Amino acid sequence: MKSTVTPWEVKGNINYDHLINEFGLQKIDDELLARIEKYAKAKGMELHHLLRRKIFFAHRDLKWLLDEYDKGNKFFLYTGRSPSGHIHLGHIFVWQFTKWLQDVFDVELWFQFPDEEKFLFKDNLNFQDIDHYLNENMLDVIALGFNSKKTHFLIDTMHAGIMYKQALRVAKKITFSTAKAAFGFKRETNIGAIFYTSMQAVPAFLPSFLANKNIPCLIPHAVDQDPHFRVSRDVITKLGYYKPSSIQCSFMPGLGGIETDGKMSSSQGSVAIYTVDDNQTVKRKINKYAFSGGKDTLEEHRKHGGDTSVDVSYNWLLFYEEDDKKLLQIKKDYESGKLLSGELKAILIEKINEMLNKHRIKRKKAKNKLKDYIYKI
Amino acid sequence: MKSTVTPWEVKGNINYDHLINEFGLQKIDDELLARIEKYAKAKGMELHHLLRRKIFFAHRDLKWLLDEYDKGNKFFLYTGRSPSGHIHLGHIFVWQFTKWLQDVFDVELWFQFPDEEKFLFKDNLNFQDIDHYLNENMLDVIALGFNSKKTHFLIDTMHAGIMYKQALRVAKKITFSTAKAAFGFKRETNIGAIFYTSMQAVPAFLPSFLANKNIPCLIPHAVDQDPHFRVSRDVITKLGYYKPSSIQCSFMPGLGGIETDGKMSSSQGSVAIYTVDDNQTVKRKINKYAFSGGKDTLEEHRKHGGDTSVDVSYNWLLFYEEDDKKLLQIKKDYESGKLLSGELKAILIEKINEMLNKHRIKRKKAKNKLKDYIYKI
Fold it and tell me: Which pTM does this prediction carry?
């Protein structure tokens, strides 16, 4: 199955090495990992498991960013969430990693909620629904524990008073032809969708504009968002700001399997697990839907073992089980046939429910903290 | 010379009857004029000379608007100015007429300053220059004497916090294909310019949105802006609001002559007279540049008289000399050869300078009134 990776559609079994070439990214090599590890160690922390496991696998200008950091020129982080549904496990790990970066480097985070994006790209979505999910999604982000003093939510329609003018500076430098080539627009694409990428570019330089000084920017994001930044990087330098650096992760597969369901996406029909799913729902979904790498019969499984490369439960543990030793043991046991598919699923279910139970407690408390996070204009 | 009429370019000798057909407008007929006159008389006012002289010559749905008014369903007015230079005489008369409408019907006016439009459509214009002219232009508008309690300035980049979200509702319903057909966009058109018409649509329903009730809208505007409203009228009804009504005027010619310079436009090279021009400058410009309908020699002029149909001075008096009797006398005298071109120019110079001298006094006082006019968010 041929794969497709655009900001609005991810399909098929994705070849990430191919994407690196196609998008013009740099692979994160061991030297760079060792360098990042040093910053973590200095804070008494380990290299993040998503880096150790190369789930964050590519970057642009990260070495330059760290050179600037070493000179005392701190960067800020920029990531985001386009609200149109509940947060699921395919989102959470990117922001957990972003929080880790905030902690290691002690930097500001600008978190964009482009509440117009899905409105413009989905026919049947209205602002009432989006506003509902915007509010829900903000609670999830706050629950992840970002430093409220250093984290600023930008909501496109709410903050248009400071963002729209900056977006126009970007828009003036992007021709229809360029946008069409990057995003595949058609004659029937609406004119808001064509303009939208200008708004996604803004948080990459708005902090510099507001502070009236040039501040480096690091964008952690899933690789499907890359076309936006590919287009805006050059424009942003033309406006007099640093080219934003970025660090890209691969997708967490949907429960249906890696080959058919390369990215968990509720809108594309895959079965996702949401932060609002209770323990029973999590258990039911994983037991019912998680594609298994196990053998057809108990006998065969005991004899030949399971295949971790296609097993979704195992793959999800790559994202959420931080302990390398535990994970290695699971891998060995599963591949040897000692661990059965049902048992592997039980491990995942416990892990996820433990995480979500804690998350939901923090999420409840987040309601009172919204005003601390939303950027004040 | 073939004429061109788009929001960004007006060229050649314009056939207004042809435009009525091409744009699908209604001609303002005598019955409608008589009806408008009644409202004016009720306020002790005369029918406006720009209506008497059919300079405001076309409309959309004006009869419907007046029917609603008669039922007690008051409309609001919406007009605007895209800042990129000083205000000239080709602008002033539209707003004088708009003020007359405000006074006759005692209605709210929403005055848009789309400060991004020229930024997006002119390569070499930056926001610093636009901000300068925005401020200058607002003073001119205030100086015209609009009721400060019923007049609200909307500045697109400043009011994007309330306008952008509404513009998105419009944008979602306009395809690239439609925008291209209406505005002639090309591959190299920037994506901000493509989006822009959505922002120009907003003031036509924003007052309804803010008041949470459907209020009819009347847009007085020069006919070159019609493509915007042709596109947005249908969209606005799809959003649940009344189709905006409009009333269109023809252009005041540039000093260079009606046939070559159908619309006074500083950006298109015609010689314009600005509100900031002093008496000597006005005198010099008119004497030097105003295309004359007079004959080549004094003898011939006395014998055959001048041609008012091409004489720019006479044509300008159509816009700014309110007194029909005076104007008719001037026409007779000029066509009979009694009045010489220099004398006709002297009449115009006096008329314009008298108006601008008063205007500049009010303009000076306007600086303290800005906060009363700019809409508070």
Answer: 0.94
